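INFO batch 0412 | record 1 of 1 | parsing
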Amino acid sequence: EMKSGVCILTVLIYRDYKGDVSMSEIDFFMPVLMQQEEEGLLCPLISHGKVHFLWIKHSNLYLVAATTKNSNASLVYTFLYKLVEVLTEYFKELEEESVQDNFVVVYELLDELMDFGFPQTTDSKILQEYITQQGNKLEVAKLRVPTTVTNAVSWRSEGIKYKKNEVFIDVIESVNLLVSANGNVLRSDIVGSVKLKVMLSGMPELRLGLNDRVLFSLTGRDKGKSVMMEDVKFHQCVRLSRFENDRTISFIPPDGDFELMSYRINAQVKPLIWIESVIEKFSHSRVEIMVKAKGQFKKQSVANSVEIMVPVPSDADTPRFKTSVGSAKYVPEKNVVVWTIKSFPGGKEFLMRAHFGLPSVEKDEEEGRPPITVNFEIPYFTVSGIQVRYMKIIEKSGYHALPWVRYITQSGDYQLRTNA
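INFO prediction complete | emitting tokens
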């Protein structure tokens, strides 16, 4: 059998740190990878002779680390993902073209990110202080040693000054949900993220207090209004030993925007927007789908930018819609009707009817129907009930700073199956 296409992947850029892996050995990576792909045995670590390739794929690029030693694999993969993060922040899109257009900058970055096989500065904000994207500026900028190199904190520079000292805290929770056709919740969890925008002078020490269940039980407080967080991951600035000892989230923050932490909550979430759909088939191949949407969150909250994607058979034609609120449109390339509601108050119920022709009603029954998916955002509200209890900001100059907190709940992978 002939393949429908053959692709030859070339090495775009290679930085040799130790001189023990030659370019000729790098050339073996792609053929071995493609052979594995054909055999259906793709492995994140490929060996050829004495060389081990540890690789990840990002859009149309392979980022490959080569080593002859028994290296710490998790460190190598962390570095490769960090490299993707840094290059994405530099070039917005990391793809073949952006690497080709910025060879000089990529080489500069590879030199700064690692030295003789050991990761060095991997924070893009700090790198941007002395590796700029205009090629001609590179030499000038390099004369100045970034303050972070001489500093105990690699992610923050000395001498940052603001007229008004503020911290903005966003607590964003995404709800993942799968509901069966008979209305049972099959899967539900919450993925949370605490994002900060820090506009503070000097070298501030921050402490964040949450209604964390483990902390509450350590200090003998009532566990009633607390939240059990799992899979907690922190930005490198957080002192992990402090958190492990007494659940204190203590850190010197980077300047500007960053994600401080992420967490997951395994909870049976009541579906915030409940959808029911009924399909009626008429003679002469006419079909009507009736969809009912109900806001099952508290009345004082409002869901914004609600999109309800209702699958329709691929051969549907001439759709007509009636909605009690919002607007509906047919997107034939995705085989869905999208019902958009700008603001959806809690406790309210809305209806949409879609009426269309189907050349073959039987075909639809054989196919089975994909689930209805919903997108939404509810400000000033978290599903888990997580709360920022305090944010303490201590800086040796003794200034007062204001913390601002926002809560947002949004849809993650939010699906409701329907009866075919």
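INFO post-check: The two ends are 37 Å apart (CA to CA).
INFO record closed
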